[in-house]
Request: fold
Amino acid sequence: MNTQELENLIRRYFDADTSVSEETLLRRELARPEASAPSADEARAVLGLFAAQRGRQSESRHRSRVWAAAAGLAMLIAAGVSFHTINHTESRTQYIAYVNGTVITDSKHVLEMMNSDLADMRCASADVDDAIAADLEQISNAINSTKQ
Amino acid sequence: MRAPLIILFMLLSAVASAQTGLATSDLFGDTYIGNQGVRLMKIEGGELKKMKLQKFYSFTVTAPDAELAASIESKVKRDGARAMDKEVQYKDKRLRYGFYQLRQAADYSNRYLVYLDQTDSTGGKILVIYLEGKASLNDVKKLIEKN
Reply:
């Protein structure tokens, strides 16, 4: 394509008179570095800008789609694992004790041990309550003696 | 592409970390099972449901050496430092009793840690209990008080 033909094509492109095949031809011509015409650079800039924007838009759209898919998948898997964990945990029954390395699986025996542990805790908890009460009483006595 | 994988990993880790993530969790694992003077008990489900609990783990060690006693106390303190609610008693600069309401598990179960150190120069024992389930703080306190 000579310079005059290219110039005409560019003019028709800016006038929006080109067909799709002519636009393709123009793009191909402008891609050649030797193609020269007074308005070639302007046309290159316009076409180049459009091409770059299209590329960027499509790339960012693609990236968004990957993100959305990955986030969806992650949430789905997490929900599935949560559901499985909760169900599995709630349905599981186990009574086991190791005493000096010996295994005990008799539920009655294990429950007795549990009650014994809770009884120890009750005594300790009561001791703490008594200690708090004693401390409060001492403070109260100190306040009363200051008043007198 | 790496970021979604990191998010996925974090989500899965959060789901998987029920009792894991606690310093005391190794007391309820295999570490001390064969040791003399150690009693490990694990109850899940069954009778516990009546108490609104799903897990009852207890670790007892009779006449522990000073190193083990200090290690257990340190683990309990570490978990206790992040507790939502606590009641503790110290004697001679040592933690003797601790009742902690821990942060909820990934499945929103309530978690509690109870510690009792009854050791003295003649022996004694250390008891650590981990409770997990729907039971509220009041439910657990009542459970301890009625025994």
Q: What stands out?
A: Residues 141 and 147 of chain B are 10 Å apart (CA to CA). Chain B touches chain A through 49 residues (CB under 8 Å). The first helix of chain B runs from residue 2 to 16. The radius of gyration of chain B is 17 Å.
